[in-house]
Structures are given as structure tokens and as C-alpha cells.
């Protein structure tokens, strides 16, 4: 099957990114919202540029892997047709959901994904804060697509479409979309939750385009007015150095794997266990933090209820 020419839409979208960030920045200054901080935005843009440059290498490698599977092992041959692009839209987004979810549950994948969560601000420039390492191995979550018969060119195009869609949801300028849209699609409100370090919001809303996956698989959390999103990491790295932003978690993971007296099993677990796990039991994963928070909230509510009950008895 001859592959049609697909444009590199990310490169074509760069002027749109620049204009959108400029407009959001203007609105932020005009309304005195302080959603931008110069060094933070410059770091995010630098990470984005690095991602694009490294993408010329990583995408070539990904294309070779996809083509090898497509040419030698594909089960079906899905044609270039309007309906196949609709199927691919959902198939790609399903793959993205599981990539994104596991990137929060497995430290090897978190080591590259943490870059995107390292900003303590939330604006359109944050969308550009992308990994420099993930493109070389996270594509494994998409290997099943050429296997079932989607052409690699189609897959790479749809992956770019997904990335473009997710740009506009990195903003506080939009509160809520219409209810029908919020019910189906990923939105700024849903994605603000994903970037929250609040225990309630940790590891929630992993959607790319469709929020339906989170609702189906139990990871959905609506944004609550009474729980303002606190952006960033549970323990922030407090640096604007792009090299540190890109590789700090790789360094930390390497230190945990290779230092100290540990069994081989524990060393491996520092790679495959969730972020925060420690072999001596002193670490706390996002699940631990959420459970502790829920218990504290429950105790607080019980205390309030007991107090109100006591007052009622006195009356």
C-alpha cells in the first residue's frame, strides 16, 4: 500500500502556539491573574523546542519499529478511508490513556513524564513542557496499532493530532465547557485536575482527547470549587534549569537502583514500582497520600459531626 504524504502538523502549528500564548499572556497581565512567570515559561518553551529537535531522531526510530511490525506481522490491512481515521481516533486515544496512566504508576515511565508536571504554573506554555527522553521508548504502547493493520503514517499523524488537541486544555482562562462537552471530551477543567498535586487530584484524568476512558476505568475526578488545584509535584524540584528538569528523575531513580545495600528484587522494584515507593517502607505513593487524606477528612467530618451532636444534646 502506498502511503500518502502526511504533513508534520506540529511544525505548522508552532505559529499558532506562539500567538495563543501571547494572547493568554496579554489577558493574564490585563486581568492581573499572574498565571505566567517568566523563567517558568521560558523553561517550558525550551523543553518544547528540545522535544521537537529530538523528535526528528525519535520519530524516525518509532517509524522504523511501526513499519517493521506493519510489513511483517500485521493481522489485517486497514485502508486509508474516512472511517479508518475515525477508528484510529479512538484506538490512538485508548492507547494514550493507558500510556498516560501507567506513566503515573511505573517509575520508568514517570522518569520521562514527570517533566510535564514539573511546573507550578498552569498556562498554555505548560503544554510545551515536554519530555526529552520519552519519545525513545513510550511508543511501545502504540505497537498494537500497526499489528492490527493501521499504517504507521496514519498512526504518527493521529498522535500529532492528539498532541495538538491537548494544547488548548492547558489554561485557566476557560472555566467550564458546555455540559455535553465536559461529559465526553477532555477539557481545561478536567486537565487542571490532572496537574494537581492535591491528594484528591493525584493520578486522575489521564485522558488525551476523550474523558470517557477515565470514567470507564475509574480514574475520573471532577474539578471542585472547594478544592482549588495546587499545580506541580508532591515534592517540587524548584529549578528552571532545562537539563535538571529533563533528567532529575532519571538521576534519582539511578541513585535508588544502584546505591546502598538492597536485594536485586528491590533494585528492580525501584524501576517498576510507582513513584514514591521505597524498599524500607518509608515511601508514600499517590495512593498512600490519597488514603491518608481521605482518612483525615473522615476524622475531621466525624469530629464536626460529634461536636454538632453534643451541641444538639445540650440544647
List keywords for this structure.
about 325 residues, mainly alpha, about 60% helix, disordered C terminus
Low-confidence parts: 304-315
Number of discrete helical segments: 12
CA radius of gyration = 22 Å
Mean pLDDT: 93
Please bin the fraction of helical residues: 55-70%
Strand count, sense and barrel status of the largest sheet are: none
What is the element string, with H for helices and E for strands? HHHHHHHHHHHH
Oligomer: single chain
The global form is globular
Give the end-to-end Cα distance, rounded to a whole number of Å. Answer: 83 Å
Would you kindly provide a brief summary of this structure?
With 315 residues, the protein is mainly α. The protein contains twelve helices and no strands.
Describe the protein in words.
Helix 3 crosses helix 6, helix 4 runs antiparallel to helix 10 (242-258) and helix 10 (242-258) runs antiparallel to helix 11. The chain has helices spanning 9-30, 38-73, 82-103, 107-117, 144-148, 152-165, 179-184, 188-194, 212-217, 242-258, 264-272, 286-314. It is 58% helix and 0% strand. It starts with 8 loop residues before the first helix and ends with a helix. The chain has 315 residues and is an all-alpha fold.
Task: Give the SSE layout.
Elements: H1 9-30, H2 38-73, H3 82-103, H4 107-117, H5 144-148, H6 152-165, H7 179-184, H8 188-194, H9 212-217, H10 242-258, H11 264-272, H12 286-314
Helix pairs in contact: 3-6, 4-10, 10-11
Amino acid at each position: 500500500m502506498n502511503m500518502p504524504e502526511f504533513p508534520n502538523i506540529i511544525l505548522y502549528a508552532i505559529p499558532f502556539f506562539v500567538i495563543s500564548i501571547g494572547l493568554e499572556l496579554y489577558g493574564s497581565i490585563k486581568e492581573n491573574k499572574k498565571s505566567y512567570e517568566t523563567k517558568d515559561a521560558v523553561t517550558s518553551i525550551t523543553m518544547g523546542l528540545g522535544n521537537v529537535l529530538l523528535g526528528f531522531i525519535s520519530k524516525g526510530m518509532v517509524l522504523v519499529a511501526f513499519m517493521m511490525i506493519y510489513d511483517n506481522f500485521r493481522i489485517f490491512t486497514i485502508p486509508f478511508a474516512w472511517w479508518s481515521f475515525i477508528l484510529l481516533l479512538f484506538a490512538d486515544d485508548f492507547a494514550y490513556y493507558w500510556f498516560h496512566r501507567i506513566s503515573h504508576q511505573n517509575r520508568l515511565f514517570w522518569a520521562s513524564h514527570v517533566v510535564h508536571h514539573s511546573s507550578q504554573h498552569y498556562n498554555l506554555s505548560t503544554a510545551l513542557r515536554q519530555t526529552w527522553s520519552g519519545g525513545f521508548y513510550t511508543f511501545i504502547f502504540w505497537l498494537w496499532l500497526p499489528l492490527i493493520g493501521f499504517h504507521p503514517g496514519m498512526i504518527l499523524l493521529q498522535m500529532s493530532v492528539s498532541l495538538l488537541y491537548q494544547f488548548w486544555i492547558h489554561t485557566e482562562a476557560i472555566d467550564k465547557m458546555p455540559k455535553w462537552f465536559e461529559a465526553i471530551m477532555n477539557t481545561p477543567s478536567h486537565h487542571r485536575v490532572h496537574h494537581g498535586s492535591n491528594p484528591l487530584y493525584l493520578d486522575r484524568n489521564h485522558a488525551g482527547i476523550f474523558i470517557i476512558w477515565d470514567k470507564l476505568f475509574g480514574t475520573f475526578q471532577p474539578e471542585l470549587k472547594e478544592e482549588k488545584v495546587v499545580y506541580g509535584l508532591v515534592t517540587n524540584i524548584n529549578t528552571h534549569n532545562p537539563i535538571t528538569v529533563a533528567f532529575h528523575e532519571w538521576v534519582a531513580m539511578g541513585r535508588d537502583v544502584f546505591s546502598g545495600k538492597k536485594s536485586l528484587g528491590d533494585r528492580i522494584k525501584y524501576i517498576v514500582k510507582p513513584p514514591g515507593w521505597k524498599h524500607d517502607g518509608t515511601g508514600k505513593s499517590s495512593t498512600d497520600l490519597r488514603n491518608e487524606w481521605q482518612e483525615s477528612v473522615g476524622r475531621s467530618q466525624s469530629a464536626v459531626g460529634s461536636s454538632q451532636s453534643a451541641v444538639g444534646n445540650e440544647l
